[in-house]
Amino acid sequence: MHLRVLREAGLVSASAEGTRRLYQLEPDALAALRDYLDWYWTQALDTFKQHVAAEGEEQMEQEVKVSKSIVVDAPPARAFELFVDQERWWPIKTHHLAQPAGERAVLEPFVGGRWYEVSSDGSETDWGRVLAFEPPHRILLSWQMSADWTHEPDPERSSEIEVTFIAEADNRTRLVYEHRHLERYADQAEQMRTALDRPPAAEAVLLAFTSALLAKTPESV
Fold it and tell me: Model pTM?
């Protein structure tokens, strides 16, 4: 049956020799088939390449982010608890929105909770909201600040900060700090990414957190 299909397609020819039927390949027809397959796969692979490149460009346009991580000598639950208690450790003198700088940062520990700064006169300056609260593994915050470092009231124009706590051992946790959706700053997205990727930005926050955690470690007393 297969030989009949090949013969009808012109790829082989058949001749009778006594009680036998002999088949042989048709080189010209096979060459034409090879040319067609070469063309077909070239077109298919080019299309695939263009699709992957387009997806990559779209992903880059959709997701501009800064990622940092540290490893601390504490279980995830303890690290998570301290991260949420930002009044104890947030570097408010260098990382603030109010002018002059406030006295402390407050993060309300529930979905929908406020993230804000409290000044010495009791006034409050909003930073964002708690979008996800999953102790002791993950917290997601909106970061409602504009490119000129003023409060951005529109949540659709704000970026997000996700912090995950990954256990690497019984008393060791990797903290992954990801500031994402910076593409929402449009023409200023790269400017914001560069600013947030510098050591005085996210890295300084993680260093302040680590210092506070070490200060509370019983072995260091």
Answer: 0.70
